[in-house]
Structure formats: structure tokens, C-alpha cells
Specification:
single chain; mainly alpha; Four Helix Bundle (Hemerythrin (Met), subunit A); 0% strand
Length: 194
């Protein structure tokens, strides 16, 4: 059954992306805060969809397929919009590119491995990377916004940029681990007769 609570949460994460993207074009402090709130809610569903799937024994092939795609679409949309609107600039763009390239690499690797009936599970370090990445992106979304409840000295943008660089560094580590595991399975599949 596709319409289980975990799958609805995952679908909601995808459905919020057009609204999230549209808020960038309003170019106001209010729209940035709303975008940040939507992004944070969508990021939280990433935890709860997996939690409810396990707790309610509602793991499904559809959810397993869509969950990582929903994460990648949300993160890629946020990074691309922030680069496009100058909220990620300078050398920090490199961190965003590292994250996007790793996501494409791992997606391609998973697709190939699925063809030889191998599942590439998400590592604990990759889950931490996702958490740091989501928090960093949330800070960067509002990083250019002055808000009366935040003191001027509170380095929102700096926290976001440092977090994004940490996520990029962990991305390289987890990407290498996934690639190494994938190559090992590729070598094994060559020696197995068809």
C-alpha cells in the first residue's frame, strides 16, 4: 500500500519543494523565514518517515525508493536557489558543488548496484552528514536576513557556512566509503557467472 503515513511524509517533502523554491523569488525577509520554516519541517519529515516506517512495520519498496530521492531533491533545490540568489557565494559554492556531486555519484552507484541486486544501505555517518547539512542550509536560508529578535553579533551566515563545509567534508568521506563498497560489489559481479 502506497498511502501509509511514512510514504505520505516522504511525498510531502517532495510536494513542498515548488512552494519553497517560489518563496526565493519574493526576496523579502518574511519569505526567507517562511522558506526556512518549510525547509526545516521538510527536513524533520526525513526523520519521522523512517521512524514511523519501522515502528509501524510499514517499510515499503516505494518508500525505500522515494525517501533518498526526496532528500536529494530538497537539498539540491535549496543549494541551487541559494547560489542563484547569492546566499551561498565565494568559495562556499565549492562546498555546495561537492555535496551535489556526491549525491549524483551515490544515486548512480545505487542504481547500478540495484541492477545486480545489491542494496547499498545508508551509513550512520551519512545520516549525521544529512543532519549537519539540513541545519547548515536552514541557517544559510536566513543568513542574509536581519531579524529583530537576533542580536547583530549572532553569526547566522557564518554558522551556516561552517556547517556546510563540515557537511561537504563528511560528504567526501561517505562518498568514498560508498564508492569503495560499490566497486567491491562490481568486481564480485564480474567474477560471478551470469
Amino acid at each position: 500500500m502506497i498511502l501509509t503515513l511514512p510514504n505520505i511524509l516522504t511525498l510531502a517533502r517532495v510536494a513542498v519543494i515548488p512552494l519553497f523554491v517560489g518563496l526565493f523569488f519574493l526576496e523579502s525577509a518574511t519569505s526567507q523565514w517562511i522558506a526556512c520554516g518549510l525547509f526545516a519541517l521538510a527536513a524533520i519529515t526525513d526523520f519521522f518517515d523512517g521512524y514511523f516506517a519501522r515502528a509501524r512495520a510499514q517499510l515499503s519498496a516505494f518508500g525505500t525508493f522515494l525517501d533518498p530521492i526526496a532528500d536529494k531533491l530538497l537539498v539540491a533545490s535549496a543549494l541551487l536557489m541559494m547560489v542563484g540568489f547569492g546566499q551561498i557565494a565565494g568559495v562556499t559554492i565549492i562546498a555546495a558543488v561537492i555535496i551535489l556531486c556526491r549525491e549524483i555519484l551515490v544515486s548512480g552507484l545505487r542504481e547500478y548496484l540495484a541492477g545486480i541486486s545489491v542494496v547499498l544501505p545508508v551509513s550512520r555517518l551519512a545520516k549525521w552528514k544529512t543532519t549537519v547539512q539540513m541545519v547548515a542550509i536552514s541557517f544559510l536560508i536566513v543568513g542574509n536576513t536581519a531579524h529583530p529578535t537576533l542580536p547583530d553579533a549572532f553569526p547566522v551566515r557564518l554558522i551556516g557556512e561552517v556547517g556546510l563545509w563540515i557537511a561537504a567534508a563528511v560528504t567526501l568521506i561517505t562518498g568514498y566509503d560508498y564508492l569503495k563498497t560499490g566497486l567491491r560489489h562490481m568486481d564480485a559481479s564480474k567474477t560471478t557467472p551470469p
